[in-house]
Design brief:
heterodimer, A: 245 residues, mainly alpha, 8 helices, 80% helix, 0% strand, B: 221 residues, 10 helices, globular
């Protein structure tokens, strides 16, 4: 059955053709969510009683952080599909996700640091959460480094899959050991300063922005995957037909 | 067969006169650089001793791992190992164990001297040796995955380091954490148990993944 799926639903050709129908829908949904999130977050939501208008960077920071972590899970799932069932599309999705994940992690770190300066009085602190995200960023960069050095793409996909799997097995261990390390070294943590319950006028734009970031990821991923498919199968007949008509 | 492999590996590495001593010398020299950089204050040195020794040991192991599979690949021995009827996981385990014996055990043996140079007490030195004994096999096994992934890639030394270093963080945290607890005379059983758990988990997963990675690496020209 898997074989049938691979031949029909999961072939690069089918993917290339069906994905073109999805692209406009995803981009429309992304624009709607993004605009509502921006307007709601920047103008409609009231200023925070403690942080003033400074908290509004949350509307970029939180979604990018969520998406960045989600992307690593997607990559690990694709890695499993690549290694076990050798699904080509999964390998392409995995390798195209890495740089999107890395840039979103970077965005999360930068916005977090900008948020931290006025609120905590420092650009960076060795807090458990911050350190975990930084390590996630290193994992993405390592993955991209490995991807860039292996020339043949079949070997590259498999090697990268193993790295992604090792990463996903290790991420919880790293996360908990970093948490543990932090409580050991410094008593107070900013995690205790977590917002109590958030007002709906602040929450809905945030949720909308999170959805927008997920849509943005899938949009960029689709475009990059289509590009990668064109590059890999450049010599095949169906691409010539698809490009000429 | 595995015993034969183990024995020949050890013999081969020992006969290349200096290959086993290079990580050791690196370890000793880098540790000796720290007092020069930090200043000779005994209290400051004692405070950072665990971190210095652990980070340096970690780097020395990473540097030594570059050649765990590389020469086998170049000589064609790797293809023979892949063709052999024995389980690849066990073969990897034997190779990793011999690598640990040749390159990591000397580091552990020399670490008491370095510990005393950095003003650790005898009790702390004992704890240091226990943590190193539990931690360095994990570092070797995890590093073997990376070494198998980058096999056949030119200039792989630095690449291997950046691939594997994030995975070394838990061991580093628990290794130095144990030392911190020991220096304040807290109970260290829990830390040791966690390091043992990490070792068992790595023993279960890493050789398997290394085997898969080696099969891919063997396809590469």
């Amino acid at each position: 059955m898997i074989h049938w799926f691979k031949q029909n639903l999961l072939s690069t050709k089918t993917f290339y053709k069906t994905s073109s129908y999805f692209l406009p829908w995803i981009s429309t949904a992304f624009i709607v969510c993004f605009i509502y999130g921006l307007i709601g977050g920047l103008f409609l939501a009231p200023a925070d009683y403690q942080q003033g208008d400074g908290f509004r960077i949350m509307y970029v920071h939180v979604p990018s952080c969520f998406t960045a972590m989600f992307i690593y899970l997607v990559m690990a799932f694709c890695a499993l599909l690549t290694l076990v069932w050798r699904i080509k599309i999964a390998a392409i999705a995995m390798s195209c996700s890495a740089s999107i994940g890395a840039s979103l992690t970077f965005l999360a770190l930068v916005t977090g640091s900008i948020w931290g300066k006025p609120m905590w009085g420092t650009w960076w602190i060795w807090d458990a959460r911050l350190t975990s995200v930084l390590i996630l960023f290193f994992l993405y960069l390592g993955f991209m480094a490995l991807r860039s050095v292996i020339p043949d793409h079949q070997n590259r996909d498999k090697a990268c899959s193993i790295l992604a799997l090792v990463g996903v097995i290790n991420l919880p261990i790293i996360h908990y050991s970093v948490n543990w390390w932090n409580t050991l070294h410094q008593g107070s943590s900013f995690a205790q300063l977590a917002k109590p319950s958030i007002a709906p006028t602040m929450l809905y734009p945030l949720l909308s922005m999170i959805v927008a970031f997920f849509l943005f990821y899938s949009l960029i991923l689709l475009i990059r995957m289509r590009n990668e498919i064109l590059l890999r199968d450049i010599k095949s007949q169906w691409i010539k037909e698809a490009l000429t008509c | 067969m595995l015993v034969t492999l183990l024995r020949s590996e050890i013999r081969m590495n020992l006969r290349q006169t200096f290959s086993w001593a290079t990580p050791l010398l690196f370890f000793v020299m880098v540790v000796c650089l720290f007092p020069l950089g930090l200043g000779s204050d005994p209290i400051a040195l004692h405070q950072s001793a665990a971190a210095i020794i652990w980070v340096t040991a970690l780097l020395a192991i990473l540097l030594s791992l570059g050649n765990i599979f590389q020469s086998d690949k170049e000589e064609g021995f790797l293809d023979l190992l892949l063709l052999s009827p024995h389980s690849l996981t066990l073969i990897v385990l034997a190779k990793a164990f011999s690598h640990w014996l040749i390159y990591c055990l000397p580091l552990i043996l020399i670490s008491p001297i370095l510990g005393f140079l950095l003003h650790l007490s005898p009790y702390e030195v004992g704890v240091l040796i226990i943590t190193l004994l539990l931690g360095t096999p994990v570092l070797t096994l995890l590093g073997a995955i990376g070494a198998a992934l980058v096999i056949g890639v030119r200039h792989q030394g630095l690449l291997l380091s950046i691939l594997i270093m994030p995975f070394y963080i838990p061991i580093l945290i628990f290794g130095t954490g144990t030392m911190l607890a020991a220096s304040t005379h807290l109970v260290i059983n829990g830390y040791i148990a966690v390091m043992g758990a990490l070792l068992l988990m790595t023993l279960a997963f890493a050789p398997l993944l290394t085997g898969i990675a080696l099969k891919i690496g063997a396809n590469q020209s």
